[in-house]
Amino acid sequence: MSGAEEILSLAQHELSPTDAVEPARAVHLNPRPGSGTGPRVYAALDLGTNNCRLLVARPTSEGFRVIDAFSRIVRLGEGLSHTGRLSEPAILRTLDALRICRDKMYARGVTRARLIATEACRSAENGAEFLARVREKIGLDLEIVDRRTEAYLAAAGCGDLADADAEANVLFDIGGGSSEIVWMSRGRDANNGRRIEAWESIRLGVVSLAETFGGEDVSAEIFAAMIARVDSALAPFVERVADMRRCGRFHLLGTSGTVTTIAGVHLNLTRYDRRAIDGLWLSREQIDAAILRLRAMTYADRAANGCIGIERADLVLAGCAIFEAIRRRFPAERVRIADRGLREGILSQLMRADRVGPHGQGARA
User: Is 165 helix (H, G, I), strand (E, B) or coil?
Assistant: First the structure.
């Protein structure tokens, strides 16, 4: 973000009281000298199978102002599906990224944060050993969250983008090592918010699927096999929500690099632009066309595309296969694209717990 500030509204929906996932282990950091005289500064760090992401923000009366951010593809889970362990090269790449995150939090005077790790650290034999190494070498105490928490944080981070007039929608987050899917219904609170009715986390993401089937040269047969694998994993969730009511405004809400890439391809962006992507509605026909364009690209074409790049060129079609499986199980005429998710959900819940921002009188613009 290079110091640029961005204002985001916190999710205006409220999960039901029994659904709420409170910050389990918010970390209080020691700020740099002289930084404690201004507004509170919060941070959210999400270490996934593929990416390491950080947001630093101050609460405002409407939401929060992002004052710094960082994102790097580290592929922490590279090879994990074959070996069951985090490799040393992946660990070293991730330590470098976490060191940058630590320095940014210190420089910005962060005093309260939540630092989470997801599927790679959950499933790796040496996941706990890796986090101990992070504490020793970097000084950050990361928390491995369970799949339920990951699904609920995604809902807290982008659920406000759902159509408030839709009786139900399906939210999905396609990750590197797992994918979360949530059935949300129209709530009964004063804000016409969304209520989580059911959720599922499947242990398939873009990295694990691409490592199993291949990601560079993806034939029609391979693509179909990936969809079938995901479809099988989705079946229990589909059965659980079979009797849930849908209306004519039913839609999908997607948050992941897969859906933002599809949106960028649809818009013919030469360089990714979050402002053009976040909140964009795409029709079924527009998504069909964008995925067909992606499937027609060679690996070199994908690597050269400004919305994909060489680091994700071998992963994007696996993501498209996951998306296709979800679309087939939950047909919808439109999809809303979210370039927000876990980190925004963490910030929202930290500020709600502290009663600042939209949840109290302690915010300053």
Answer: coil
